[in-house]
């Protein structure tokens, strides 16, 4: 009994640092945000409990908070729809490509494709703003040298080019993370399945469809849900590269939450908007997980 008690104590001590960090950096901010969402907080120290007033304003047409929320949510949904399929498919394609290489060079290409993920948002935005600049950007200069006639493309100023630019730079910046997860999943697929399929005359496409994809379905679900959540939390790319333009086309919800909190000093309203965004992400992620789980069944 004494040994069992000591073993439990030792296990608890190993878990304790994680639990402290979890409570300090996740549970406490979450609880504080929920409490703040029921208050009129002007970010200068004044607090007043107002119940559900902030949430009512979000869902009441004609209020400023409602307009900012709907406009930002529209931009966020557009980014999710445009970016998530490419982030998942390109991540899987890179994983398949790297996994097909010889083991001597796999590490090199993993590093090359993952490296952009390690750089900061500011550096990423600076690089791609130089590439997509209308007048002096590398891409438009390259198009000129290739003989393209007509005015320069406003990659960061006009639709639909602005979405193409944002999605492309997001793929370059973050797809390496998905690639690494897919590679780990591919490494768990038994090689005997591929050997048996080759003996039966299955080509590469059939092996992909009937062996690889079914074997990594759970990993693919995890990647899809994580990518959706990350895309819902988009902020740096439109904030740094387009400032939400042209007009409000690329204004995403986190930008408007930031504006409400620090521009209008309405911390309670901003917290309520963030809580609703979190609930939307939970609902979307749950629905997708249930759909994919049902399809597996």
TrEMBL record:
<keyword id="KW-0812">Transmembrane</keyword>
<dbReference type="InterPro" id="IPR035906">
    <property type="entry name" value="MetI-like_sf"/>
</dbReference>
<feature type="domain" description="ABC transmembrane type-1">
    <location>
        <begin position="73"/>
        <end position="288"/>
    </location>
</feature>
<keyword id="KW-1003">Cell membrane</keyword>
<feature type="transmembrane region" description="Helical">
    <location>
        <begin position="79"/>
        <end position="101"/>
    </location>
</feature>
<feature type="transmembrane region" description="Helical">
    <location>
        <begin position="12"/>
        <end position="38"/>
    </location>
</feature>
<keyword id="KW-0472">Membrane</keyword>
<dbReference type="Pfam" id="PF00528">
    <property type="entry name" value="BPD_transp_1"/>
</dbReference>
<feature type="transmembrane region" description="Helical">
    <location>
        <begin position="108"/>
        <end position="129"/>
    </location>
</feature>
<keyword id="KW-0813">Transport</keyword>
<dbReference type="InterPro" id="IPR000515">
    <property type="entry name" value="MetI-like"/>
</dbReference>
<feature type="transmembrane region" description="Helical">
    <location>
        <begin position="216"/>
        <end position="236"/>
    </location>
</feature>
<keyword id="KW-1133">Transmembrane helix</keyword>
<comment type="similarity">
    <text>Belongs to the binding-protein-dependent transport system permease family.</text>
</comment>
<feature type="transmembrane region" description="Helical">
    <location>
        <begin position="272"/>
        <end position="292"/>
    </location>
</feature>
<protein>
    <submittedName>
        <fullName>Binding-protein-dependent transport systems inner membrane component</fullName>
    </submittedName>
</protein>
<feature type="transmembrane region" description="Helical">
    <location>
        <begin position="161"/>
        <end position="183"/>
    </location>
</feature>
<dbReference type="InterPro" id="IPR051393">
    <property type="entry name" value="ABC_transporter_permease"/>
</dbReference>
């Amino acid at each position: 009994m004494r040994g069992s008690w000591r073993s439990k104590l030792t296990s608890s001590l190993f878990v304790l640092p994680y639990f402290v960090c979890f409570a300090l950096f996740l549970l406490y901010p979450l609880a504080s945000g929920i409490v703040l969402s029921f208050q009129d907080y002007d970010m200068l120290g004044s607090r007043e409990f107002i119940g559900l007033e902030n949430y009512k304003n979000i869902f009441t047409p004609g209020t400023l908070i409602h307009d900012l929320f709907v406009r930002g949510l529209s931009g966020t949904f557009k980014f999710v729809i445009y970016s998530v399929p490419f982030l998942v498919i390109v991540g899987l394609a890179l994983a398949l490509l790297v996994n097909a290489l010889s083991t001597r060079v796999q590490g090199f290409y993993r590093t090359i494709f993952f490296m952009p993920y390690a750089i900061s948002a500011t550096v990423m935005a600076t690089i791609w703003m130089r590439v997509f600049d209308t007048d002096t950007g590398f891409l438009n200069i390259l198009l000129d040298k290739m003989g393209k006639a007509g005015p320069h493309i406003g990659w960061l100023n006009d639709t639909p080019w602005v979405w193409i630019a944002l999605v492309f730079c997001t793929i370059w910046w973050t797809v390496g993370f998905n690639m690494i997860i897919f590679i780990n999943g591919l490494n768990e697929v038994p090689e005997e399945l591929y050997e048996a399929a080759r003996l039966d005359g299955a080509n590469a496409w059939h092996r992909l469809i009937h062996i690889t994809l079914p074997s990594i379905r759970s990993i693919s679900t995890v990647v899809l849900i994580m990518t959706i959540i990350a895309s819902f939390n988009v902020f740096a790319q439109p904030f740094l590269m387009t400032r939400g333009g042209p007009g409000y086309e690329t204004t995403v919800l986190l930008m408007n939450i930031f504006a409400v909190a620090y521009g209008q000093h309405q911390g309670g309203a901003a917290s309520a908007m963030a809580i609703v965004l979190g609930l939307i992400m939970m609902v979307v992620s749950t629905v997708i997980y249930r759909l994919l789980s049902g399809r597996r069944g």
